[in-house]
Specification:
Helix content is 82%, strand content 0%. It is mostly helical. 41% of the residues are buried. The chain has one domain: Four Helix Bundle (Hemerythrin (Met), subunit A), CATH 1.20.120.680. Helix 2 runs antiparallel to helix 3, helix 2 packs parallel to helix 4 and helix 2 runs antiparallel to helix 5.
């Protein structure tokens, strides 16, 4: 089942199950998506229409990447070959790239805000940077570098 089809309690239960997916890749993508939602909120208060639109796109893309990560890992477990392994590297790298972009949007909004919403922008940037870092670590692990 697609991640975006689950209620929060169902998602948490699925993550906690003793199954290979969803796991850290999907959670990292969702963390990036949550950061993007906060970036969108911050961009609204900063009157940044382009930031609003891009944050919304990034949130959607990151949720999709969460599903792709789970699918890539399941495919690799079913047939361990160079092609399936490459996907377990490519998808986290995409998650990291999108999360980096979320952090940039959040930083841009934070620079324009002087209200309590600046805290949301800073939270967005911190969550996005954490997601990017974890995603890069997963790609490295899947490459055999960790």
């Amino acid at each position: 089942m697609a991640i975006n089809q689950l209620r929060v309690d169902e998602l948490l239960a699925a993550i906690g199950e003793r199954t290979p997916t969803p796991a850290s890749g999907a959670v990292t993508a969702l963390t990036g998506a949550l950061a993007a939602a906060l970036a969108e909120l911050s961009a609204r208060f900063a009157a940044d229409d382009a930031g609003i639109a891009r944050a919304r796109e990034l949130a959607s893309e990151l949720v999709q990447l969460g599903d792709k990560d789970a699918a890539a890992y399941a495919a690799y477990l079913a047939d361990q070959n160079d092609k399936t392994r490459a996907e377990t590297i490519r998808v986290p790298e995409e998650i990291a790239a999108r999360a980096d972009e979320v952090a940039e949007l959040a930083d841009r909004a934070a620079a324009k805000l002087k209200s309590s919403v600046a805290g949301d922008a800073r939270a967005s940037a911190a969550l996005a940077r954490a997601a990017a870092s974890v995603a890069r670590g997963l790609a490295d692990l899947n490459r055999g570098e960790s």
